[in-house]
Amino acid sequence: MLKLDKVCAGYGDLRVLFDVDLEVNQGEVVALVGSNGAGKTSVLRTISGEIKPKSGSITWLNEDLTIKQTYDRAEMGIAHIPQGRGILGSMTIHDNLALGSYTKRTKAQRNELMEKVFDTFPILKEREKHPAGTLSGGQQQMLAIGRAMMMNPQLLILDEPSLGLAPIVVDEVFRILRQLKEAGTSMLIIEQNLVKALQIADRGYVLETGKITLAGESQELLANPDVRKAYLGIA
Fold first, then answer.
1. How sure is the predictor about 164, in pLDDT bands with cuts at 50, 70 and 90?
2. Model confidence, pTM
3. CA 137/CA 50 separation, integer angstroms
């Protein structure tokens, strides 16, 4: 579905990504892991169109993604949940969800998609008319995932879904992501919690200082001694 080939990108004159190669196939969950400052969020911003690559190519279902506007990528079925969730706190939960279905491809399905979100997250149904800002951090993450689901995405991109959440809430968020995986949703997940990320992913990439240094099946990466030492503190 998605292929990055030798992508270099950055901010102004500052280069932060160097020859990044990455693929996500239909129905696959791919994890991109690495330490703070490695460039993980920049990879997602480049895919979403917030950053224009300086060289290399990005293709989506064999189309050149680099010539598409950011809003075109949403219409094409790419949903990006940013770090910090990006919900609109003064608006109701219902209205936050409705905003997710304003693409031409999903507007007619809004009611059906919203029922699906409420089935997945009953707490959002219970508090449908409440301002989104009254939700806890974990509930806000559920709302962000629900809003992305309203796009009926072909690819769901998540930037640090566990950031700032209590361990019990992290478990719940990843349980939901596992459900989406079982339903056939393709995902690209950035996550500092390497074990959580690789437990749900089919494959993973390790990014260090803007370069992919390792790639492989999730279980291979979890068993790799260099990965275990660098990210789990296990020699």
1. confident
2. 0.91
3. 25
